[in-house]
Amino acid sequence: MASSISQSPCKECQKGVAKCTGCGKQYCINHFQKHRQELITRMDEIGQQHDELQEYLQRENPPFELTSYIEDWKQKSLKQIEDTAKQAQADLQKWFHHTKHHLKESLGKLTEKIKSNQASDNYAEKELDEWIKKLLEMRQMLEEPLTIDIVEDDTVSTSIRMIKVIDRSLISTSNTSEYTKVMTMSEVKRLAEEHDRCYH
Fold it and tell me: How much is the pTM?
């Protein structure tokens, strides 16, 4: 034990009448009592550490710092996803209004032609087939547009990275990088698609 008593023993301690069986040193009665009190203080500290650890083991949740990190990552990722989704929705809405305006003009012209031919009773199978084909094409342009796709934007470098929990005590230094590798959302989707192909 490191203490002022052991560093500078008094003359009585050199002739010590009491010996500590723990450290093997001899003390005078006064210093032996002080030495014993130091041991009692250390025991109290051990007891406190023990109680704190026991209390910690009663908890149901992981450390707040770790759960907080995961929650922060989720909120930041959701914010970026929401912003991207809003922009995609706005672009889709813009396309829809543009296409609808164009179709209204086309439908207006077709309506006039149909009414005119109907009024003059000037139509047959050919005209009917042509009109129904044009109406179906216009409807398809809105319901199943052939020129619109939702794709991943490879021109934008996303800051979203997948996270996972690892136990460093269960992995060796040689393969740590393998376990800590992060993947972009597109990589995760690609791996999921490869997995689906293997099992279907």
Answer: 0.47
